[in-house]
Amino acid sequence: MSYKASWRSPSNIALIKYWGKHELQLPRNPSLSFTLSACHTNMTMTVSTGEHPSLTILYEGNPKPAFATKINAFFSRIDSYFPWLRTSSILIDSFNTFPHGAGIASSASAMSALALCIKDIDDQINGRTNKDAGWWSQVSEMARLGSGSASRSVFPKAALWGTATGIVASSDHFAIPWQAEVNPFYTSFEDTILVVKDDEKAVSSTVGHQLMELHPYAGARYTTAKENLTRLVDALRNPPLVDRFISICESEALHLHALMMSGTNPFVLIEPATISIIKEVWRFRKESALPVCFTLDAGPNVHLLYPAAHKTEIMSWVKSHLLPYCATEKLIEDRVGSGPEKIS
To answer: Which pTM was predicted?
Structure first.
């Protein structure tokens, strides 16, 4: 028998950063993210059961055997729940709408798309059709086993992952939807991504997480992240607290990169252009009084977050002042998005 599933799943941008894990992809602190829209992975998975077991991986139409190690490791973590993964011929074909491995959470979109395809095919094999809240929680937990941040990509607008004080439904094992807790002022935010560098980053996020285990400031970081989450949750419910939102987002981004640069085996992922953009953002916000801020993922590229109502004025400034800092003057116009979508 042959089965096929195709899903589009987005990347996400963490506002409270996940940096440090233990056991099997469990976070040292809770994180909260906006789900994106334009930055996504389109994936088709074709499974033929009863045939000689095999795995073929295509990326942008070309063979990509380099992905096999990560995917096989992921399969080994979940094949007790999906035994057909061990006994089938599997073809995975995907492409991204944004640079792979450049620090824009491509593993989040890819592994969440893969989790969705696997769950979908398992439903086809077993004759299930119901996609209730429990279904999405199972997909989130499965995606987490492939990439921690992928757990958040399966929900629209915003998601929270990790056990958080006062949030009963929160869990280290899966993310929970957070859209209902966010004021529409924020769920209409734009995310203009300034692509400072579009090649693969020098140090993977996996290595970065491992280095946190011996980091002298790890304990203080996890405490600060939990405190910032509590304060950010309050700000996301109250648009008048946008200055707090801005302060926390930028502080979290700088904390993340300060940890990289201050550990036992330090490394630097930001570029001189990243610093120049940050300074320009601070200058522009002071002069214009517009609510625009930056955040960074584990790479040099800068996410500019701001209300859609100010897009015309902010994009004019971006194109005149920030575009020269970007690789081949490249940027991605993204926004808070509606989550994964099954595609034909």
So the answer is: 0.96
